[in-house]
């Protein structure tokens, strides 16, 4: 019995290892994501030579009432430069089926942010993420975006050519 438990534990640990991952961090959003709440992620540049992909990871539940998601993402470089992007992601199919993965009501989406980039400077980078959601026909953003539970970023090495 002990051998079976050890074998199952080893299989789970090996399956959960992600050899491509260089950095991964989540931040919880409780009681709705406030429109003025920027989530900050800081990380050292892995290197200044190799290419990387950066993803925004998002966990949402059935309280999320939209089929899309608008985010404002700023990357602050060690040299003081800032790149700001307004991004739109599809979160559900037209029939309402979530595009994220998961067996329960909590779904996880891996959203492209930057593809095949090289970090040009060594030092610490900072990524700030805020939502930019609003109800159709309104100018003001939603005060609180319900249904988002966790937001994160992940940096992965790119496949070698």
Automatic annotation (TrEMBL):
<dbReference type="InterPro" id="IPR020018">
    <property type="entry name" value="Motility-assoc_lipoprot_GldH"/>
</dbReference>
<dbReference type="Pfam" id="PF14109">
    <property type="entry name" value="GldH_lipo"/>
</dbReference>
<keyword id="KW-0449">Lipoprotein</keyword>
<protein>
    <submittedName>
        <fullName>Gliding motility lipoprotein GldH</fullName>
    </submittedName>
</protein>
